[in-house]
Design goal:
Number of helices: 5
Helix content: under 10%
Distance between the termini: 81 Å
Number of strands: 62
Radius of gyration: 32 Å
């Protein structure tokens, strides 16, 4: 090869080649349009790290790797795309074979007993008798290769039963709900159970519903069965026996109907970590990553450096979900789960570079996109936590979950890409295990685009923003997500509203889309928070006095369907609770408004902390906790100090805590505040100082008027407090500042660096008798007035927590304003002229 005479600045070797030329180069015929997307990917492929393109003296392009000194006339990625063409052709061939099999799959007219009626060319089966458990099978025998069998549940009864599976040729003679071992039956039941040869192996799957589609993929090569519900894997069984098996059904009770469907394409394969061939040949000590548990588990084995592993399968259709458990997490090192292209396992760096199209979530609580950190301060991952990701190909987005709660959504995923789940491991001591059949969490709530006719319309941002531009008409918009069980949280950000509009953010049955009233009637099972500060339930006002809703307030609702309760939040602070039996399954977020408004559904809201309760297990000797866990009482005795802690831990956003002094004894004093609850079991007070140890990280206010910060008295001589007083504490975890309140008015402000470690409300009683009651839903006062550094003249210097403003200008009139806007009610502020 001639010398390098020209350094060509092309990131893509095939710049200038047309799609037709690329198809010819890759051997894709004109009638193979279903493979053209591979040519598009090849045209867009970037050079791997260390590769660069050059031209020789005759103008021919070639490529050179500076790290390995390898030179090539062809693009380094070409081999992958040739393999991809061959793999896609083989997949299409396999799918055609499966389709041919499916054309022959019908219920066998001789393969069932009485009580089953066949129709639609023997593809639909109906249980129409009073028989208990009639069974039937198909006429199609499965023996070798891969088979795909798909059933649609046309009708289902609440108290009935159905099993979808495979069994022996004589299976139709079975009359039991659970076929015994003799029939070699492997089945998935409508009540969410998996049975193998008469034995229950899984019982926690979701129940099947009407119109659900169940797909069963049988691999005789590796003896595995995968059951899918609506194209998502729900169960995997490996090691079945038998060489001649038939798709089959067991009906229970009258009224069940099921139809055989033709699968248009294979569902996603079960994900496993791809074992690198070079690592596989080395000894156990030489491998950077050790794969175990049938390649579901990957463990880092290198004391230094970063290794990225990916799965053997990829996502390119539907909206798939992937999940893995962090089983080992070392104190120093790195772990990040994400998605990327097929080359990501070649990345040697901690954060895979842009060319890998990588999007990931790190255990440190950071999100990365295309090699750049895009968000920090997210929940940190601990050992045992589950990280999940939902790939929304239609929106070009990926949503990351921690323990089934959405935490961040990354946007603008490159198109024409096959995405492989991947994990970057740094240092030995990290281990992740793939969940082969994860339970998919609820999707991100979005406004339902056809939930109602104009004047409501959905704007951009992927149906996140609902907007009405007409006045005097009631508009109702609902979410596309329905809550079925457990605890769910959603949040609506108010972006705009007309001053005279009547608005209610709430939750209701999906039929509320037909509503034309500001407060929907009881028939819609509606519960909501109105912009005038009222809480409503079934068309009636049940609570008043909550904060009014204004732009840009955030309204959150925690839906606890198990306890039939709703907890309402205003800008992250709890303001009201509704308990009602109609808070049950099949409720959806909604907004009703008479007048113009604009509301955004937050795709990944940070779930706020619940109202605190005293923790009976962390109450020291002689502290009595009331039945509702809101009041802590200590009798009069000779003990010097005792502490009680709350059940809640806070470390994000802002916190306002309030306690009421129910009893302040004649002897001793009380400390209220927050501290590091993890230290609660290590002693009480320092004997001499009678203050919490420094490692407790207590920020508090004593009834003697002392301000405590990190185990030391920071200020003395503040207002003392006694019976009936309401003592508040406001902490901003972002700015690491605090403010102490008495009866709703700020008393002192200060800095509290390091508070982000996580703190819990606490109270310490010195002597007694004393009694303190937690206020579960306090009215959040305005934060203390400070000088606004963002609205400060350049010649004005701020100090003392932005309370002191000093003019350094020799002439002119520099101006500075406060941080808080006075909206309504009465306010008092005071300025001291010191110089």
């Amino acid at each position: 090869m001639a010398g390098k005479v020209e350094d060509v600045d092309f990131s893509n070797v095939k710049v200038g080649l047309k799609l037709k030329d690329m198809c010819m180069y890759m051997g894709i015929a004109e009638d193979e349009k279903h493979l053209f997307w591979i040519s598009e990917l090849a045209l867009l492929a970037k050079l791997p790290p260390h590769w660069k393109q050059y031209r020789d003296e005759e103008g021919h392009a070639y490529f050179h790797n500076h790290a390995t000194s390898v030179t090539s006339w062809t693009h380094p990625r070409d081999s992958y795309f040739f393999e991809l063409v061959a793999r896609e052709r083989n997949k299409i061939k396999t799918m055609q074979q499966i389709a041919d099999q499916q054309r022959r799959v019908k219920w066998d007219p001789q393969g069932h007993l009485e009580g089953v009626e066949l129709s639609n060319g023997n593809t639909t089966a109906l249980h129409n008798s009073d028989g208990m458990y009639p069974s039937l099978r198909t006429s199609n025998k499965m023996s070798v290769g891969t088979h795909c069998f798909q059933i649609k549940i046309d009708d289902i009864q609440e108290d009935g039963f159905m099993m979808i599976g495979m069994g022996k040729e004589n299976f139709h003679y079975n009359s039991d709900a659970i076929p015994p071992d003799d029939y070699n039956c492997h089945g998935y039941t409508t009540v969410g159970e998996i049975y193998v040869c008469g034995k229950l192996i899984e019982s926690s799957l979701e129940k099947l519903q009407k119109d659900d589609v169940v797909t069963m993929v049988v691999h005789f090569g590796n003896r595995s069965i995968v059951w899918y519900r609506n194209r998502h894997p729900v169960a995997l069984y490996e090691g079945f026996e038998g060489t001649a098996l038939y798709p089959c059904l067991v009906f229970g009770y009258k009224g069940y109907q099921a139809s055989i469907e033709r699968a248009q394409q294979m569902p996603h394969p079960i994900m496993k970590w791809m074992v690198d061939s070079e690592q596989a040949e080395g000894t156990e000590e030489q491998k950077c990553v050790i794969f175990t548990n049938r390649n579901f588990t990957a463990r880092s084995n290198s004391p230094t450096g970063y290794t990225t592993v990916r799965t053997s399968g990829f996502f390119d259709i539907d909206n798939p979900y992937f999940e893995a458990t962090v089983e080992m997490l070392a104190g120093d090192g790195f772990l990040m789960l994400g998605i990327a292209n097929q080359y990501v396992h070649e990345s040697p760096t901690q954060i895979p570079a842009e060319q890998y199209n990588h999007f990931g979530y790190a255990a440190s609580g950071e999100a990365f996109a295309l090699g750049v950190r895009v968000k920090s301060g997210l929940p940190r991952v601990q050992r045992g936590d589950v990280i999940g990701l939902r790939l929304l190909l239609e929106y070009q987005r990926v949503i990351f979950y921690v323990n089934n709660k959405p935490v961040v959504e990354l946007v603008d995923l490159p198109v024409y890409e096959q995405y492989y789940p991947c994990c970057t491991l740094g240092n030995a001591g990290y281990q992740v295990r793939i969940h082969p059949c994860p339970r998919i969490p609820l999707g991100v709530p979005r406004w339902l685009n056809d939930s109602m006719t104009p004047p409501r319309f959905i704007t951009a941002q992927d149906n996140m923003v609902a907007k009405s531009v007409r006045s005097g008409q009631c508009v109702t918009v609902i979410s596309a997500v329905e809550y079925e069980s457990g605890k769910q949280y959603f949040e609506v950000n108010l972006m705009a509203i007309h001053p005279e509009a009547e608005m209610c953010v709430g939750i209701a049955a999906k039929e509320v889309a037909d509503n034309f009233r500001a407060i929907p009637a009881a028939e819609y099972r509606h519960f909501g928070y109105c912009n005038n500060g009222d809480l409503v339930a079934l068309g009636q006002v049940v609570q008043t006095g909550c904060p009014r809703i204004r732009v840009p307030d955030r309204i959150g609702i925690l839906v606890d369907l198990d306890r039939h309760a709703l907890l309402f939040f205003h800008n992250g602070h709890p303001v009201g609770i509704i308990n009602h039996n109609n808070v049950r399954a099949r409720l959806t977020p909604c907004v009703t408004c008479v007048g113009q408004f604009e509301a955004l559904l937050d795709p990944t809201p940070a779930v706020p902390a619940f109202p605190p309760e005293w923790d009976c297990e962390r109450a020291q000797d002689n502290i009595q906790v009331s039945k509702d866990r809101l009041t802590a009482l200590v009798p009069c005795d000779t003990e010097s100090a005792r502490t009680v802690w709350s059940t809640s831990v806070y470390n994000r956003g802002a916190l306002y805590l309030e306690m009421q002094v129910e009893l302040h004894g004649r002897t001793g004093w009380i400390v209220y505040g927050v501290g590091n609850r993890n230290m609660a079991s290590q002693g009480k007070f320092a004997t001499r100082a009678q203050l919490p140890y420094e490692e407790y990280f207590v920020i508090g206010y004593t009834s003697r008027g002392d301000i405590i910060n990190a185990g030391a008295v920071e200020r003395r001589g503040e207002e003392q407090w006694c019976n009936g007083d309401r003592m508040g504490l406001y902490i901003d975890f972002v700015t690491e500042t605090y403010a102490a309140y008495k009866n709703g008015f700020p008393v002192v402000v200060g800095n509290c660096p390091g508070v982000g470690v996580g703190v819990s409300p606490m109270t310490t009683f010195v002597y007694g008798p004393h009694s303190m009651k937690l206020v579960p839903l306090p009215q959040v006062p305005n934060p203390p007035q400070r000088w606004d550094s963002n609205k400060c003249h350049s010649e004005v210097a701020l100090s003392q927590y932005s309370l002191m403003a000093t003019n350094k200008a020799e002439s002119g009139y520099p101006t500075i304003v406060g941080t808080q806007v006075l909206r309504h009610g009465r306010h008092y502020f005071e300025v001291t002229i010191e110089y």
